[in-house]
Amino acid sequence: MLMPIKSEFGFGLLTIGCCPGGGGSNIWTLLLHGDLNLSMTMTFISSVAALGMMPLMLFIYGRFFLDTKRIVIPYSQIASQLCYIVVPVVIGMLIKWKWPTFAKRLVKALLRPTAFAFLFIIIGFGGYVNWPIYALLGPYPLLFPAAAALPWTGFLLSALLAFICRRSRAEILTIAIETGIQNIGIAILVLLYSMSQPEGDIGAIMPLVVSFSTPFPLLLVYVAIAIKERRCSKCCWKKTFNKSISKTVEDLEYGEEHKRSILKNESF
């Protein structure tokens, strides 16, 4: 009601809100120094809950947009997401148990570069491939603010609630990321199979717009963290440098005094 948009776009927005977490939330948690264990746990729990809660929520609210009997839930897609979470975690736990030193080196060498490459591919190539679709949004100026309001409000409200519950900074970031980022792939499948054409294709534009608008607050947080770390490293370097300089000066002064005392003793 706040933003009057077509029913196809409205159902697309509703479908995204009912989807479980995912879509790179674990990667963003890693880059923003969040709690990766909490992120994986929340993604797993939301995916399991989506097997029952997603059909229920779409049945309750989807009737305002279309016949609920036509709504198709991609259970196989949700189950495959659970496998994508569980299998790598089990393999990682086995490697850490059998070869702990190798696991630490592997994480240090590959994890962050792989995360950067993954996000570059998603944001860069995803934006380039979907650019013709974004160009079609000219007649619908309210789509972008409506799409951006979903993840951005999720970031803000979940972070505020976590802060009120006195969570740590890493946990606040993780909860905000997991709440704001949804699995866009599941939403697109639901829209394509539940709506007749061309309404399904029109509704599927909404998840793409949401995926385009989601990273902006996260990028701002990442830049802020990078600037803070850079300033802290400079301050630490200056403190270390000043300490080393003062220690060197003290050593030189002590050496001069020691020489004077030796010369004084020899004169006597």
UniProtKB/TrEMBL annotation:
Domain of life of the native organism: Eukaryota
Keyword Aminoacyl-tRNA synthetase among record annotations: no
InterPro entries the UniProt entry points to: BilAc:Na_symport/Acr3 (IPR002657), Bilac:Na_transpt (IPR004710), Na+/solute_symporter_sf (IPR038770)
Gene Ontology CC terms: membrane
Membrane topology category: Multi-pass membrane protein
Coiled-coil portions: none
Molecular-function annotations in GO: symporter activity
Transmembrane intervals: 12-32, 44-66, 78-97, 109-131, 143-165, 172-193, 205-225
Record's keyword terms, sorted: Membrane, Symport, Transmembrane, Transmembrane helix, Transport
Keyword Lipid metabolism: no
Pfam families xrefs: SBF (PF01758)
Record-stated family: Belongs to the bile acid:sodium symporter (BASS) (TC 2.A.28) family.
Name the UniProt record assigns to this protein: Uncharacterized protein
Organism of origin: Hymenolepis diminuta (Rat tapeworm)
